[in-house]
Specification:
By secondary structure, this protein is an alpha+beta fold. The protein has 3 helices and 7 strands. Helix content is about 30%, strand content about 40%.
């Protein structure tokens, strides 16, 4: 693989409980919303499960993801093609942590930061919708 070894570990506070955050990371209909403009395989099932393999595209660069494990507060993806490495997500009430390591030409830290900020923005919108329906 061409590129440099890079690693990035970020943890941020986000609105929402563990279930809401988990749904945003494990349910493909939500992933498609907050990961845009990154695109995901059209045949992606409703929920990410252990053993699933899918592809995402950042522009013309394809990244293959294999779900190593997925549960109610952790998701670990093995990456190949555009990035050779892994991406691990861990979350709880009001926080999410992302750990990304791999060999690539892509700027991993920048992409990870943007993704986390988009996730926070998405969750803020979900919380606003949730509070509006409670009236």
């Amino acid at each position: 693989m061409l590129g440099n070894f890079q690693q990035s570990h970020l943890r941020i506070t986000v609105p929402g409980d563990e279930k809401t955050i988990g749904d945003s990371l494990l349910k493909s209909r939500y992933l498609r919303q907050w990961l845009a403009p990154q695109t995901l395989s059209p045949e992606l099932p409703e929920t990410l499960t252990t053993g699933l393999t899918f592809t995402s595209w950042t522009g013309f660069i394809a990244i293959q993801h294999q779900v190593e494990f997925a549960n109610n507060n952790c998701l670990r993806l093995l990456l190949s093609q555009g990035i050779d490495g892994y991406h691990e997500w861990v979350w709880g009430d009001g926080w999410v942590q992302s750990r990304l390591e791999g060999i690539t030409l892509l700027p991993l830290n920048l992409g990870q930061t943007v993704s986390l900020l988009r996730l926070r923005q998405f969750l803020s919108g979900q919380m606003a919708i949730s509070s509006d329906t409670n009236f």
